[in-house]
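Quick one: structure for this chain?
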Amino acid sequence: MKRIITYLLPALLAFSSCRKDNNDSVFPGTTDERINKTLSEYQTALEGAQFGWNARLTTAAGSIYNFHFSFNNANRVLMFGDIDTLTASERKESSYRLKALQQPALIFDTYSYLHILADPDGSVNGGTPGEGLNSDFEFSLDSLAADSIKLTGRFKGSKLVLKRSTQQDLQTWQNGQWKNVLLFEDLSARILNYFKRLHYGATQYEIQVNKTERTVTFTWRDGAGTAHQHTTGYVVNNTGIQLTNPLVNGASTINSFSNFSWNAGASAFTMNVNGATPSTIAGAIAPVVLDVQAPSRWWNFVAQQDSYWATLNGFHVNGVDDAFKLHDISNFMFLVFWPRFGDAGGGLIYDLAGWVYNSGGTASIEFGAAFEPPTFTNGKVIFSWLGTLGDVPPEAEDPYVNTAIQWSDPLGYYLVQTSPTTYDMVSARDAKAWITWEY
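Got it. Here's what it folds into:
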């Protein structure tokens, strides 16, 4: 070992001596000069695209959104986005700046369509409170090529790729093609039934679109009567919807939807499946696959824990959230359903639809509708009104009565389990009224 060190030491000294004598910098110019040169190159590229930039944003949660940006040399940017039909059709102007942070960065510094996805207020974008949709509006500039720019979100790590746009690309936004494609995400606003039915070939598929997560779920029965369910992400483009994981049902495959139109007379969407086959999506009053045990499973889940289900908005009816205007009541917080809440005498244990108020900073049940133990039959739950617990204030009289009447519909409700701790309670009369329950 000593011999090796002896031989290496002169060589190391020689190398060190060479480095000491070499005062030339590896990089030309000062650090500030190099950064300013890089920012100038990006600025020239951004504003130099005659027809702007096509942009694809992949959020940290994996959802994909498309934008079109047109930058000028006065730090203004015009944009479209495929968040919804409004953002896809109305071009919005905001500001941007290029700045040297830990590395060169592109910052959209006034509220824009990008900010909608990043907004931590879940009511803005349907995302998680405090998180939004896990996206960004400040991006580190990763690379610049002749016709593309790659960026990474500075806080959430979302990915943004810009590609130079053609005149035709810009026109697809301006002439409403993107807006028309987003009719696919407008199913719930136009079809008032909870259940939506896709007719394709000899099969009827129940279809549920989650536009917040950009997923679509198909439920169906095959020729032998076996139930199936398939959930996949989807990507929007200027011609239609592409499924990231195609649905396969025997010899039949669904890859995409395109050429959307709304038939108001039939209350149905028409479209092409896989680019060619005409199909429709219309409302239905019952599920394709009935979960017969869901109602009792829903009731028992909280009854066994002496706990309750909660809903913020009460009933959604005929396309209207909070249809009975619960949140017009001062200090109202939410509605609960509490099985086996109390003893009505004679051995009758009643359930309660309780109205929870903010009472001096404490959530408390002020009054409620008492129901007899429910009946479970044919995959439905049926409630029978027993009476009113407590005193209903005058301002809550109409919301309370309307809610109790809807709840007591003798045709009852289907229960659709949407997660381990959430259910939708859907009217069996016409599927146009429902409550979303959370635990």
